[in-house]
Design brief:
The protein is mainly beta and 165 residues long. The chain is built from one helix and ten strands. The chain has one domain: Sandwich (Immunoglobulin-like).
Amino acid sequence: MTIRHMLLGLSFALAAGAASAAGDIVQVDGAWARTSVQGQRGSGAFMRLTAREPLTLVGASSPAAGVTEVHEMKLEGDVMRMRAIPALELPAGRPVELRPGGYHLMLLDLKAPLQQGTTVPISLVFRDAKGAERKLDLQVPVSARAPSPAGGMRLLEPESHKHKH
């Protein structure tokens, strides 16, 4: 494992920890934003949101993008379509996945490419049952693919336990 991989894994773990510290609003796990290239106008951000009480995700913003929207991918007939949605319900205690091919955040009109190993600031706005809005600021790691469940680090099988076939 290279130092770069260890640092990337650590950045995923730190971002998840920082988001969990704001857990009075919602717990955020596995957050990541997809890398982009020069000239690419948009990219996605993904995470698992678990609200402690019923909440609605009503907005998102990022200084890295001109526009940040909540989107869904939906199969209509035999065509997969992506569209912005005004809000996303988060039932209390039930994780809601923002993932490729489903609900996700779209960062549009990117101001610069999202580069591997960096983070992108994203603010999420939630509305509670009483109508009060609360903001959660995140530093989301940028990667070409989702972090592994072990925080980006691969567990190695002990030498004495290798299988021979």
